[in-house]
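The passage that follows is intended for readers who have already worked through the single-chain material. We present the inputs for a multi-component assembly, then the predicted structure in tokenized form, and finally a short commentary. You are encouraged to pause after the input and sketch how you expect the pieces to fit together before reading on.
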Amino acid sequence: MKALVYHGKEDMRVESVPDPTPRDARSALVKVERAAICGSDLHLYHGDMPVPPGLVVGHEFVGEVMETGSDVANVRVGDHVLVSGVIGCGQCKRCVRGEVVRCERKQTQVFGVGPDLPGGQAEAVAVPGADHAIRPIPEGVSVEQAVLLTDILPTGYFGARNADIEPGDTVVVIGAGPVGLLALLSAQLFGAARILVVDRVPERLALAKELGGIPVPAAEADATIAELTNEQGADRVIEAVGSDATILKAIDWVRPAGTVSVIGVNTSPSVPFPMVLALMKDLTFRIGLVPVPELWPALIPLVASGRLQPERVFTHRMGLSEGAEAYRLFSAREDGILKVLLDPSR
Amino acid sequence: MKALVYHGKEDMRVESVPDPTPRDARSALVKVERAAICGSDLHLYHGDMPVPPGLVVGHEFVGEVMETGSDVANVRVGDHVLVSGVIGCGQCKRCVRGEVVRCERKQTQVFGVGPDLPGGQAEAVAVPGADHAIRPIPEGVSVEQAVLLTDILPTGYFGARNADIEPGDTVVVIGAGPVGLLALLSAQLFGAARILVVDRVPERLALAKELGGIPVPAAEADATIAELTNEQGADRVIEAVGSDATILKAIDWVRPAGTVSVIGVNTSPSVPFPMVLALMKDLTFRIGLVPVPELWPALIPLVASGRLQPERVFTHRMGLSEGAEAYRLFSAREDGILKVLLDPSR
Amino acid sequence: MKALVYHGKEDMRVESVPDPTPRDARSALVKVERAAICGSDLHLYHGDMPVPPGLVVGHEFVGEVMETGSDVANVRVGDHVLVSGVIGCGQCKRCVRGEVVRCERKQTQVFGVGPDLPGGQAEAVAVPGADHAIRPIPEGVSVEQAVLLTDILPTGYFGARNADIEPGDTVVVIGAGPVGLLALLSAQLFGAARILVVDRVPERLALAKELGGIPVPAAEADATIAELTNEQGADRVIEAVGSDATILKAIDWVRPAGTVSVIGVNTSPSVPFPMVLALMKDLTFRIGLVPVPELWPALIPLVASGRLQPERVFTHRMGLSEGAEAYRLFSAREDGILKVLLDPSR
Amino acid sequence: MKALVYHGKEDMRVESVPDPTPRDARSALVKVERAAICGSDLHLYHGDMPVPPGLVVGHEFVGEVMETGSDVANVRVGDHVLVSGVIGCGQCKRCVRGEVVRCERKQTQVFGVGPDLPGGQAEAVAVPGADHAIRPIPEGVSVEQAVLLTDILPTGYFGARNADIEPGDTVVVIGAGPVGLLALLSAQLFGAARILVVDRVPERLALAKELGGIPVPAAEADATIAELTNEQGADRVIEAVGSDATILKAIDWVRPAGTVSVIGVNTSPSVPFPMVLALMKDLTFRIGLVPVPELWPALIPLVASGRLQPERVFTHRMGLSEGAEAYRLFSAREDGILKVLLDPSR
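Having made your guess, compare it with the prediction:
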């Protein structure tokens, strides 16, 4: 089959690879209908993650079930399904609850990152632990929406849930990339009165406004947040960038007894943390990996009913054959690109 | 001054009464700019509440502060303000937190109902405990919205908050009168995926739909709820009618381990309660009076930011001089009437 | 094997019955080491429950696994185990979380009550859905403690958890029978400052005091509760009797915005409910069946570490061969009886 | 009057100073009956805090009200009272709720630290905002217990409350000094099954065991925690030391999706924070200053009823005249010293 394969720093190639084979009776084979490129794939593209050359990449994909192992009970051949971008053992107490990122057997893996778990920017994928990793796409959810449910929408929602938002709150979202925008939509589900979205890029701020946020250019953020909160600070801050500097800004901008929720991926072994400021502020600080399937019971009905419309974040739709160019564009942030959808049939 | 005065069952008259006088140094005098008639005023109109003839009625009003006692610190002459429809002693631990309906000194009273607390369907009102009962109307909140913040919007919101709604839930609201419709808007703040609104009146169902609800004619409710929830029952039910029959329906329609939240006013000393059904369902059942000022820190910013637009429930705007006719119309449910706003200057 | 068999009102007999046979590959066969008689077994004994004559009774038992079906993964032959007194399908979303009383497939059944689910007051029991219904007895938990973990301790704990207790609260427990006493111990886990236990029987009140409660004779309860709470009412009331009268007392004794949690079994289709009082009090009222396995992750460590010592409720230890007499004694409340442990080997 | 006065690093003297005078009509004058030295006073003693020489120190004290301003309503001359070690403006929304450390007017101050707020290791103290800072000592609370309620017991309790403890949890407390021991007692109120207390000092570990903890010598902590939690990590960790190293250990020892609650005082502007570890663990991290009066409604009833017995932490009772020696002993950790009570009459 055709697939996007990692060959080293900034070297992603579309090429032919052997068809995937399900590893055991609990696995399923999924023919990919659409996949997406995630911001975290760029870390990999830039050589910042220890991925073996030759690995098929991608952890956001949906498709049709072609084959199921004999122990798979909840998924049937012919189902159109969404697949969690991250999986665990599928059997421990935490995995059974969907908290696959906290697998008690420490078998958490991400598709297209874990060395034995080839990814979904390909024509087909073998999915282990199919009963826990897969859900049928219900009526009312489009294929594009389903792709977003495999990782990035749960991530944005996780950021909002972790922020302890209460009705009437003023929330700051740092970063108007796709994750930040989905955090904005999610924060609305918790009753935020005002959601300030901070970014440097005017186009992204315009989109944040369109989606219901209050756009704040990064250069004006200190002053604007102070003014709009009467110098008290924001009730909650969601950090969706992942740099040390924006994490520090988040702590700076939150009010006493508020919450900072980090969903930007920061993989530093040591970030300078302003402990005395945190102490004076009575800070709650959260950072974590999204437990995708745990969040589906909340998110799938919200998308199916039309209350959440996340698909606005797709700006580019390309064929899988254009995958190398898609990575280049996305990395260069050219052409107003926010998020790319890939079609393996093209 | 002119005021609407209760003279007995279905006998409400606009007449001249003495001007109100503040009772002590903690009181303020408010010139009424707008008042509204509440569904609960109809109980009074129908003679179902023990109100002394001669009392000025009405507990939903906003206006301008004309005079403040020497101990009033947070309110100034000239402020345009909203006044809580219900007040307590204003000083005990609960009143200080806005929970005036749970006053530890048992001094909870409703304007225009409590015999020493003349109401706001009048040109002016004396407000005791002004610091706790009054808030300035902030920028972004219209006079009509402010009237709704004095009682009925907090009531709808209280119903939604008491329902333990989680994101993705299916919620049923029984009754598409003004309180039910405001409960519908409020339930959206807690992330409900689907909100079914049950009523008998097609016009009210149409308005529920316009406000984002799924309209369900009462005659089809049993079947529709069963179908849409795969026979599991609704996650949460908000009862906004107050009859014994609809409270029983609420218990019937909720799923196991769900919550029934009653905001319809039911004053029966004894309602037959299906205890064995509640036992089998693991039921949480809540009913209570709204602690108006406790809810303002959530609701005022939501209205000010435009996230909550409750004013749609007003269908009639009349002069105070037409007050008697307004009560008649509202009681007869003529002319598509939902909620009446009264202007004391007319 | 020998077993206690129901033959009609007040006619319980120890007799020989066919050995149980596991129903399918997900079942296990358990040799009973100890069983207990539950207060709810008395409803059955008195003919108040529709149980078919000939059924082996009892839903509180522990034992050794003798045989497991081919699909049983978490339980092994030779394990000493505790078995949930209530089971569901074992596979739906709720059962997987231990909420077997809310089984989505509506297959909730109690051992020794459900007509196809013979009980545990016997030498052996066939247990369906073994992976979900069974847990090994861990180090630190005695056989007698394990018996209490199968139903009655989770019930007392459920009552306390449902009561929304906060540290510093004053809690009333109505009924100092075994369930009430275990609710008393459980309420201590949530930080209650004072736990008043109301009963008529001096011996039970003495035991309540020994376990850390404040004993209140029923005849003095109105006055005592009023006095100790400065006429405000108790923060929380746990009802552990199940009569209409005590449920009404619970509502009477709770403070505004407090919680009433009912674990006494009341199976009336219609109890007169003081709706206007509930309305004035802003009442939260909960009643339900205990989801036994859901509570094990909290309760098993607490018993194993010695923080919870529930075994004090056993007052009588008898042989299974004395089972008929045990029921008679328990029903007559003779001999200071609180709870009976049965040994099938005698 | 006599008082302990700060004169520079490790130079604390008992000397005569002018009697305190209440600053306004909202203040009260309190004759000190007992005061205590807090661990945080040592920071000051060691010259680590910017305190003006000449300041009377101490923020833990109780006494008798000698004089009240004309606007003081809740406190009367002759009352024996406890005084919050930290105060705010006393009038903003947060102060009214007891959250004085989050004063909206940014007027939070600690007695004996803030330059205009002389402390309580003295014969008398002027207390601003008396209505909010002072509570009568109720029946059942001893003078020694009352002293602990002014700061250190609320701090330990705050650490436990911030740790999100659920019944059945395994909790680690780092540090068996007075704050750690009170965190241990407090963690029991939230239903912890096992509380491991880590320290280097055998006497402190022995006391932790006496109070219900599981003592763990610091050198064995890594191995013991791993073993007792099956390599999963502790559900919650309360850090009661305040060093960078112990904060890092706390993050190391907590399980995925667990909580680290820091009450040790760490005033570093920049602590190296293991962000990638926090990310992988889905960490909740809390650190803050204790809002003393907010916690009294929970803590005062618990001490009054005997459920909390914090007084065990006092190891030394001395006269105020021995104050300089008390600081020296405490700083040197000589003589098994844990916490010193001072009597101004000696």
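Commentary: Chain B is about 30% helix and 25% strand. The interface with chain A takes residues 157, 161, 166-170, 188-194, 297-302, 304-305, 307 of chain B (CB under 8 Å). How closely did your sketch match?
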